[in-house]
Amino acid sequence: MIYKNELFLLTDKIGELANLYTNVDKALAILYCKQGKLQITWNNQQLTMTPNDLLVCMPNSLINHYLRSEDFQGGVLCISEHLFDELMLDCFRVEEHWWEKYSYIQSTPIHHLEERHTQLMDTYLNLLVQLLKDEHTAYHKQVMRTIAQAAAYECLSYLEDHISVAQLDNPKSKADVIRRFVLLVREQFYLHRDVQWFAQQLAITPKYLSSLCKQETGYTASELIRKVTNDEIIRLLKNPSLTTKEIAFRLNFSDLSQFCRYVRKQWGTTTTQLRQETL
Known about the structure:
The protein is built from 13 helices and nine strands. It is of the alpha+beta class. The longest helix has 23 residues, at about 140-160. The two termini are about 30 Å apart.
C-alpha cells in the first residue's frame, strides 16, 4: 500500500524506501518494525531494528543498504517539511526542554516502544490511513495535522522517561544556550525580534548565537525568531474576531503599514489574501 498527500506519505513497501525517501529528502521519515528484523544503514551507521522499534530519520538523513528478514512486517511514514516545521514550532512553544529532546532523537535514532506507545502508534497510523483513503477536504487535512500534533506530544512524553535530568539541566552545554534562547523567544517575541537583544540577555555575541543556532538546529537565530513570529501571525489571522490592526498591535509592529509590509515580504501577498488562505 502507498497512501499520500502533500502532508504525509505512508507505505508498507520498505523495498522502495530508497526511492521514496529520495523524493522527500527534506521530510521527516519514521520507520517502524512490527515483526521480524530490518538492518539498515543510516548516516553511515549500521542499525538493526527488531519488533516494536522505531527509527526516526530527521530531514536530509542518508538511508541505504537495507536488509530485511523474510517475516518482516513494518512500514514508513514520511511527514512533509512544511508540516514538520509546524510541529517543531508547536513543540518549541510548549516544551521547556524542546532542544535537548530534539538533540536526543538526532543522536539516538532507534527507539523501542512499550506496549502503551505501540498501541497509540497503531491508533494514529490507522486514523491516518483512513483519512488518506478519503477525499482530501480542508477539514480532513486539519484533522491529520491534529493527529500529527497529538503524536508529537506523545513523543515528548515518551522522551521524558528516557532522558536523564543531567542531560536536561547542564548549564555548560550548547543545548542549554539553545534552550534558554528558545524560552526567551517564546516569552518575548511579541516585544523583541532583534537577535542582538536576545544575545545580550544570554551574555553572548549575536554572531555566536546565530552560529550556534545554525550549527545545532539548521536555522540562524533570526530565522527561528521569524518562524515563531510567522506561525503566530497565521494563528491570529485564523481568528475572525481580530482585525488586522489588532493583530499588528498585539505583535508590537509600529503601525498597520509596517505589519502589512512584513506580511508581503514574508508571503508575497496582502494580509487580506493571507487571511482568506488560512481560513
